[in-house]
Amino acid sequence: EDKVVQSPLSLVVHEGDTVTLNCSYEVTNFRSLLWYKQEKKAPTFLFMLTSSGIEKKSGRLSSILDKKELFSILNITATQTGDSAVYLCAVVQGGSEKLVFGKGTKLTVNP
Amino acid sequence: DTGVSQDPRHKITKRGQNVTFRCDPISEHNRLYWYRQTLGQGPEFLTYFQNEAQLEKSRLLSDRFSAERPKGSFSTLEIQRTEQGDSAMYLCASSSLGGGYQPQHFGDGTRLSIL
Fold first, then answer.
1. Which of residues 46-85 of B touch A (CB under 8 A)?
2. Among residues A8, A36, B13, B74, which one has the fewest Cβ atoms lying within 10 Å of its Cβ?
């Protein structure tokens, strides 16, 4: 059965800190890994990673995938209170369109 | 705003009642998905449509759940004879049909509470 494990489950930091969120996965015939940010409502799409070693970057957020070790990390530099959210990692299996999600990492950024 | 739209936002009902939710996807998106999310968990896949065809359905989906997308546009999710365990956020997502995997974009969800 496909499995996505995120760590830590919860993290509290101060504004300006840099954080690294982890996502490890077990999936048959891996296709893609996606990161979403969820602030009480709809998960909003951040990144999609398909190839190993290629960093995706958007402002202070970046992410990279390691298909050999079966994990991805999401980095957020110079955190702001607006980064407080649950960050969800999900994988897609070849031959399927469904997303299999981890439980998420709840990030709290204090001023 | 042309994002995914879900209605109602909240639904409170008594155990044993039937409920129906509606999802309007992003207009040019062919694919539509339903997920369920409970507190402290990530969304869990229920089913997905490509146009009007229901192509994948979770093995966990009870026969009390049914989804339709009759004209390939909006979709409805019905839960019959609701149970306490059905209390959750029901999320709808849509994606386009293009080369390679296309990311799913989510609506704000319908929160169902069973009394």
1. 48, 50, 55-56, 58
2. A8
Please name the residues between 1 and 40 in chain B that touch chain A, using a CB distance below 8 Å: 3-4, 31, 33, 35, 40
> Could you read off the pLDDT of A43-59 as tens digits, one per residue?
999 999 998 888 999 99
With CB atoms and an 8 Å threshold, state whether B43 touches A103: no
Pairs of residues, one from chain A and one from chain B, whose beta carbons lie less than 8 Å apart: 59
The DSSP secondary-structure symbol of B86 reads G
Segment A3-28 shows an average pLDDT of 97
Give the helix, strand, coil percentages of chain B, each rounded to 5.
Answer: 5, 50, 50
Express each pLDDT in B96-107 by its tens digit.
987 778 999 999
Residue A21 CB partners (closer than 8 Å, separation 6+):
A6, A7, A8, A11, A73, A74, A75, A76, A87, A89, A105, A107
* CA-based nearest residue to B112, from B94, B93, B85: B85
What does A30-49 look like in DSSP terms, one character per residue? EEEEEEEEESSS-EEEEEEE
Q: pLDDT (tens digit, 9 = 90+) per residue, A17-37?
A: 999 999 999 998 899 999 999
Reduced to 3 states (helix: H, G, I; strand: E, B; else coil), residue B89 is strand
- Whether residues A42 and B106 touch (CB distance < 8 A) is answered with yes
Query: Chain B contacts of A41, Cβ < 8 Å?
Result: 108-109
Place of tokens 């290629």: A54
